[in-house]
Amino acid sequence: MRREMASRNEQLSRADQVRARRKIEPAHRKPIPQPPKSTTREAESASRVISRHTYPGMAREARSKAKPQRRIYLPTDTPGSEIRLPAVPEVKLGWRLLSAFLVILLGIGIYMLNFSDSFEISTLNLSGAQRIPAEEILDKLDLSGKPIISVIPSEIEAQILAEFPDIKSVTVRVELPANLTISIQERIPAITWYVDGEATTWVDEEGFTFPIRGEATIPLKVMANGDPPRPLGYVDPASEPAEKAETPILPTPSVDPQFVASVLKLRGYIPTGTALLYDPENGLGWTDAQGWQVYLGTDVSQIDVKLAEYQQIVTALLERNLQPGLISVEYIHAPYYRLE
Length: 340
Fold this sequence. Notes:
32% of the residues lie in helices and 22% in strands. It contains eight helices and 14 strands.
């Protein structure tokens, strides 16, 4: 009991001490936490209507406000220091802007190809020509001063073959800025055709005729009093209408190829240096060294038989002291001769 009484007195004394101390010292109390005052930003957000739905305009506004900016720092002479420049927004090129740039660039390129002097044809690189000058081809094609972009190789090739029958094949290549290269293969003349003693045209082994250009070593001459036989279905270009066709007409053989083969076959049977003769009625022949004319017709498939028959006729005439003026073995079963 005594201990309990002593502890109470001790507690009371302590409480009295605290009360006395509070009366002497001013009270230092902790401030009571107050709720923060509302800011203008919170008031604006509170007054703003919130919607759960998203609209294209809202998303675009959010993206536009969040554009990244690129920071640029410049080093200085002092180690560890640098100068920061104002931030520059990053610009990203879209596909539409890139497409527009490519279209503009392409338009400039097309304009230069059509109107710039650097892309106009002024010279022609010709290869494979031995008798045809490049200037003549360029004048016929009328390409001088035209833009290289307007040249279509296939059309130029067809036009060259139509204008120059003495060209067998042609290849046209177009290269920038203004290079036009033409590679040709000329026809090789095999026969020189004479009419009334004057050379009029050349004939190749395929039956194509073309004008005489310069000098050439022609193995065979045909002295004729008319035109050579035409192939079946041949149409003279001079008889065609004067209107120019949309596409050039390629040349066709103007001499019967079988007739050309017959002429070339006779080359090994006639005397060296002797010219062949051609008559529309009697066919092919030559002038014999004794002065008369020999005709074998246009079909020389049986030339050996015809030549043997011709020798028998000559032998029979000389035995009878007859001087023929013409011997024809065009028809094997009906040969004939004419006396002078």
